[in-house]
Specification:
With about 400 residues, this protein is an alpha+beta fold. It is built from 14 helices and ten strands. Helix 3 crosses helix 8 and helix 10 crosses helix 12. It is elongated, with a radius of gyration of 32 Å. Belongs to the ABC-4 integral membrane protein family.
Length: about 400
């Protein structure tokens, strides 16, 4: 029998027992949908957490020292560390503003556009970053977080780009609005050019609160951090022994690797739990096919008498089993993605990832590998759990089959 004949016979046999076939397919649908939903959703959560840290998070090195670092220190480090794509410093400050008898705490960050771009700290929802001219001129411009709109202007839907806000007796032009990192009703963050913060809020003190380097693609982050400590010690006049206690380097790479490892392990565990549903579905396939063999003994005898070989009988019942599983796999894959999107929507609306330092929409990870996994599992289940009934049917004695009532 050719493939077309096998498929046609399989469809006819399944149509003869529609109720039983649908219930058996349902078991496969539940199993495949569970695996797809868990795999896609956990993959989406992992991507959300990693992306919340910034696209370059694994290549960022945070540099600090026991004594003061300024822009000259950063420039000297850039000159001797070609392993970095960029090295940028930040100036931090703090102020308060009273609005309608309410005190608002404002955390202030001063840095260059390149710093904001490489860290991904600013996710603009309106407006723009600072221009080159504004940075060079230490212009009084700022970017505020979205939750600050209501605090400063009373209306959370107000259009604030182009308006000014008064801080410490000076007016600052708002050029952009970013997503709120930690939404609050009495605390907000504001971002300024570096020179503006040093001049207006830090009274000209050139101390940099933080220095961050972006390691070039392909470089060993750990080796670069070790080299950074050595080179910075020379720049700042520390001895080799002092350097280990006075200079600190930290990278998110190890944290991201740990996060990926944890999420992958969690994904495997959940996939294994969901796989139990597939096992139950596979047992249902075997049970149905054994029942089919018992009910169709006389049909098997007639086919053998007409010249069908054991191989033909095996192929016929395996095709029926595979048809059940592939149908269930297709429906289960669609259902699994639908469930994953539904759960992701609920998780996003509840902002479940905010406690992990990130927020935003969770998008299920729909990859070709996931689809191939579903197809492979469907076909595999059909062949594995359908093989025993198929071989049992093929080994029946044709004469005994014809005598069967």
């Amino acid at each position: 029998m050719n493939a077309r004949d096998l498929l046609r016979e399989a469809v006819r046999a399944l149509e003869a027992n529609k109720g039983r076939s649908l219930l058996t397919i349902l078991g496969i649908v539940i199993g495949i949908a569970s695996v797809i939903a868990m795999t896609s959703l956990i993959g989406g959560v992992r991507n959300n957490l990693v992306s919340g840290l910034g696209l370059n998070a694994a290549r960022l090195v945070y540099i600090s020292a026991a004594s003061t670092m300024n822009q000259d220190t950063v420039d000297d480090l850039k000159a001797v560390m070609p392993s970095y794509e960029a090295i940028e410093g930040t100036a931090m400050s703090y102020t308060q503003k009273k609005v309608n008898d309410k005190d608002i705490s404002i955390s202030i960050t001063g840095a260059s556009n390149q710093y904001y771009e490489m860290t991904g700290q600013l996710k603009l929802v309106e407006g723009r970053l600072f221009s080159q001219q504004e940075e060079s001129a230490d212009a009084r411009v700022c970017i505020i977080e979205r939750n600050g709109i209501k605090m400063l202007f009373g209306d959370p839907q107000a259009s604030v780009v182009g308006r000014t806000v008064e801080l410490d007796g000076r007016d600052y032009l708002i050029v952009g609005v970013s997503e709120s990192q930690y939404p609050s009703e009495d605390y907000m963050q504001a971002y300024f050019p570096m020179g503006t913060v040093l001049n207006d809020f830090n009274q000209g003190d050139e101390y940099l609160s933080q220095v961050i380097g972006l390691v070039r693609e392909g470089e060993d982050v750990d080796a670069v951090m070790s080299e950074t400590i050595t080179k910075l010690a020379t720049i700042m006049g520390y001895s080799e022994d002092e350097a280990q206690d006075m200079i600190y380097c930290y990278s998110m790479k190890s944290s991201i690797d740990s996060l990926n490892s944890f999420m992958m392990s969690f994904q495997l565990i959940m996939g294994a739990v969901a796989g139990i549903s597939l096992l139950v579905g596979g047992i249902g396939i075997m049970n149905m096919m054994l029942t089919n063999v018992t009910e169709r003994i006389r049909e098997i005898g007639i086919r053998r008498a007409l010249g069908a070989t054991r191989r033909d009988i095996t192929a016929q019942f395996l095709t029926e089993s595979a048809a059940l599983c592939v149908t269930g796999g297709i429906i289960g894959t669609i259902a699994g993605f639908a469930i994953a999107w539904g759960l992701a929507t609920v998780a996003s609306s509840m902002d479940l990832t905010s406690s992990m330092g990130t927020s935003g929409v969770i998008t299920p990870l729909i990859s070709p590998q996931t689809i191939l996994l579903a197809v492979g599992l469907s076909i595999g289940i059909g062949l594995v759990f359908g093989y025993y009934p198929a071989r049992r049917a093929a080994k029946l004695d044709p004469v005994e089959c014809l005598r069967y009532q």
